[in-house]
Amino acid sequence: MALPFPSGLSPPEVSFLCEMELVTVIPRQRLEGLQLLGGSTPPLNPPYRTSLPLWLALLLKRQRRANILPPPWLSPLSLDAILQLETSSPQFSDPQPLPYASSTSIPASPPFLPSATADVASDALPYHWLEIGETLLEGASDDISEPDTVRRLMRDLREVRLAKMRAGIDVLEGGREIKMNGVGAMEVAEGRAFIGQVVDGLRKIGAGKETSRRERKAEEREARVGRAGDEDEDEMDI
Predict the structure, then answer these.
(1) Does pTM top 0.85 for this prediction?
(2) What's the angle, vertex CA 140, arms to CA 139 and CA 144, rounded to 5?
(3) How far apart are CA 73 and CA 133, in angstroms?
């Protein structure tokens, strides 16, 4: 018997989708474009920059055919500023703005957005910030300025944002709502389990309260009917 699949994407699946994110590369040799399922890639002409999917950029990096230019937000200065913003506010920091979509175009969403190229904003994290950062630190750490500092800041950011998600559970238990704007894909995948358990528990508690309320109303209605019957009997005796 096949086991049921869990709802939502798992962390490995999120990491796999992240490899479709576009990053900026600086080619070291001339290469023709490739015909892929999603379309053709631009040709590589040193020293001109170009944008490629993350998986292809890592492949060229391992073959020493290109260097990867990290996104502006993956720098010690930017990460430290974002960390200060995260620690000073109970809300998550604002995500990277979405590009303007006209009424005739199909709106795109991550990972099909240029959120990790060299020309994106440096003061906001993209949807796949955690996966992109860890992947680049593992496969192209020599292209990143102060990789040890970047790794430490990313770890601190992850802990601070995870603490905010846990604090949001207390808000949910109090019957209030929580604003989750700016939460990343990996954070959603990792937090889905315990947040789902809390929501299910609250739903069961709410159902129990509703059942108790209905039973209490039924008892009160029966009591009123009983009292009315006693009054009618008293009037007949008189």
Answers:
(1) no
(2) 145
(3) 10
